[in-house]
Amino acid sequence: MHRIKLFSYAALIALAVALFPQIGSAQETLEKMNVGYSAQAGAFAPIWITKEAGLFKKNGLEVNLLFIPGGPTAAAALVTGQVQAVAMAGPAVVSSNLAGTDLVMIAGIVNTFAFQIITVKNITSPSQLKGKRVGVNRFGTAPDIAMRYGLKRMGIDPAEVTILQMGEQSTRLAAMKAGQLEAAIVLPPITTIAQREGMNILLDMSELGAEYQITGLASSQSFITKNRPSALKLMRAFVEGIHFYKTRRKESMNIIAKYMRTDDMEAVGATYEYFADKIVPKKPYPTAQGIKALLDLAAKDRPEAARVSPERFMNVSLLKELDEGGFIDQLYK
Fold first, then answer.
1. What count of other Cβ atoms lies within 10 Å of the Cβ of residue 5?
2. Across all residues in the chain, what is the average pLDDT?
3. Do 267 and 202 share a structural domain?
4. Could you tell me the CATH number of the domain that includes residue 245?
5. Among 37, 115, 122, 262, which residue has the fewest nearby CB atoms (within 10 Å)?
6. Phi/psi class of residue 200: alpha, beta or left (left: φ > 0; alpha: ψ in -120 to 50)?
7. Does 293 share its domain with 162?
8. 252 close to 57: Cβ distance less than 8 angstroms
């Protein structure tokens, strides 16, 4: 079943790419590029806003923005060249690179655990979670890793709970309401909706201060090397998108609502405040320490990961060029 899903996503991406040709021809003013995002969650708002605010076009790019569910599928699309960049989870980039690809993080979006562990009404302390069912989307993904980390920080061995794969955030919330889970790991706006239902935030992981490369903008070394002017346009647009995100609340909230397919503006506002004000950096450098944390985790199954430098999984040259030239600072003056 999983293989069929992967094939289906690959086929859909291929169709979208076929209908929207890659890097453009000399006859076109705007250069065409395929860019993806791997989840419909608030952490991915900067890439949506960059598209909808017209900032790709401002920088000479006609971007086809594709939803490619799941980090592994997104990584595969990058490797095959179907897309040139993807806003995606850090663990998938690290796993792909360790397997021999040249995928790297070129920007960081969420450089810490930005998840929240929520519980049903009658669970108000960590000790009450022992023996209970907790939901993640899929084993080995960023939410799964974050849940296990959060449990340990609360003094609970992950073996003391039953961790279940429950799919997207909305599905996890529905499972809690139906009595199929006692806890789940989510992001705003699901947190806000859960609180309305009387559920509790047991742990806001962003307050732990741990560096962890949860999401970022990924590409391939080969694309950056062969198409550096195009890659630089992409990065310039992206940092302008972050500036728009942080300074244009109303417009940004409308874009978030569109991509998250909701008219619940209270929940969208909570999403905006959490990520725009608290999480996403003005200068979106990926964090070496955050990637090292991913490597330390990967080393449990791949001992060689412990000996690899985090810098292998990053290419900050585009961002650094813009930063050192004063481009980012000028945006905020």
1. 12
2. 90
3. no
4. 3.40.190.10
5. 122
6. beta
7. no
8. no
Number of domains making up the chain: 2
DSSP 222-284: HHHHHTHHHHHHHHHHHHHHHHHHHH-HHHHHHHHHHHHT---HHHHHHHHIIIIIIIS-SS-
Which residues, at least 6 apart from 15, have a Cβ–Cβ distance to it below 8 Å?
A: none
Which portions of the chain are predicted below pLDDT 50? 1-7, 22-27
Q: Give the number of C-alpha atoms closer than 13 A to the C-alpha of residue 221, restricted to the C-beta side.
A: 13
Q: Are residues 271 and 126 in the same domain?
A: no
pLDDT digits (tens, 9 = 90+) for 74-103: 999 999 999 999 999 998 999 999 999 999
Q: Which domain holds residue 232?
A: 2-111+212-331
Considering only CA atoms, which of 208, 222, 211, 187 is closest in space to residue 295?
A: 211
Q: Tell whether 135 and 68 lie within a shared domain.
A: no
One domain, residues 96 and 178: no
Q: Residue 169 has what pLDDT?
A: 87
Please report the pLDDT score of residue 189 as a whole number: 83
For the question of whether the overall pTM of this predicted structure is more than 0.85, the answer is: no
Tens digit of each residue's pLDDT (9 = 90 or more) over 273-321: 999 999 999 999 999 999 999 998 888 888 889 899 999 999 999 999 9
Cβ–Cβ < 8 Å for 79, 194: no
